[in-house]
Design brief:
By secondary structure, the protein is mainly alpha-helical. It has helices spanning 2-30, 44-61, 65-73, 84-109, 112-117, 138-144, 159-177, 195-203, 214-218, and strands at 34-36, 79-80, 157-158, 180-182. Helix 1 runs antiparallel to helix 2 (44-61), helix 1 packs across helix 7 (159-177) and helix 4 (84-109) crosses helix 7. Residues 92-219 form the Fatty acid hydroxylase domain.
């Protein structure tokens, strides 16, 4: 039951929110607010590949709630009251932790062995789409699913913050894979909105961060 609810939640985020996100991007493109980063058409077989591997990843993500519930019952994870402040602060902390967690996992994925045998699946999407957000090898999906469980034993959260966070995460993920950017993309300010990770797919190196570019700047000497 618990697995089914979590699996269904991620399926709804991927297909439901993803379709809505893409629709909004196309509307904003017609209004001249968004522009394509790469204007090349994405082949249908790439979309099919992405959906196939994303569903496999969601099967893995469905198990992510189980260790959290287990640790809650064991008293290892402490839950805070579901107040507005606890929810908001929890989402902010989870978002910041995800930046660190994703950066570390992503750098690991770009080591020679992992790139050749694991991360290559995600980089099949040379031009990313909203459907490539979860297109992973199962090992990468497993590692990326551990964001809440790797911090919740040390920092108490509201359960609603933990529940809402995947929605925030996937929205940022869509922004990083949708192949759109605000305006012309000229100037440093424009690159805040997802451009870095979109460009990572075509370049294969640099831009290892999730939504922010901070850790890439801090460790820039090691990203080249």
């Amino acid at each position: 039951m618990l697995y089914g609810l979590t699996f269904g939640y991620f399926i709804g985020l991927y297909f439901g929110v993803g379709s809505l996100f893409l629709f909004v991007c196309k509307v904003l493109e017609r209004k001249g607010i968004l522009n394509k980063i790469k204007s090349i058409a994405v082949p249908k077989d790439q979309i099919a590949f992405e959906i196939k591997h994303s569903v496999k990843s969601i099967v893995i993500f469905g198990f992510s709630i189980i260790p959290i519930v287990f640790l809650i019952r064991k008293g290892v994870i402490e839950l805070l009251p579901n107040t507005w402040s606890n929810i908001l602060i929890g989402i902010v902390i989870l978002s910041l932790w995800n930046e660190v967690h994703f950066y570390l996992v992503h750098r690991l994925m770009h080591q020679k062995f992992m790139m050749r045998h694991v991360h290559f699946i995600h980089h099949k999407s040379r031009i990313p789409t909203v459907y490539s957000v979860f297109s992973f090898h199962w090992v990468e999906a497993l590692l990326l699913s551990t964001v809440p469980v790797t911090i919740a034993p040390f920092v108490p959260f509201s359960i609603i913050a933990i529940f809402i966070y995947p929605l925030i995460s996937i929205l940022l993920n869509f922004a990083g894979h949708c192949n759109y950017r605000f305006g012309s993309g000229k100037g440093k300010g424009w690159k805040l909105f997802g451009t870095h990770h979109n460009e990572h797919h075509s370049r294969g190196r640099q831009n290892y961060g999730f939504a922010l570019h901070l850790l890439d700047k801090i460790f820039s000497r090691h990203n080249k």
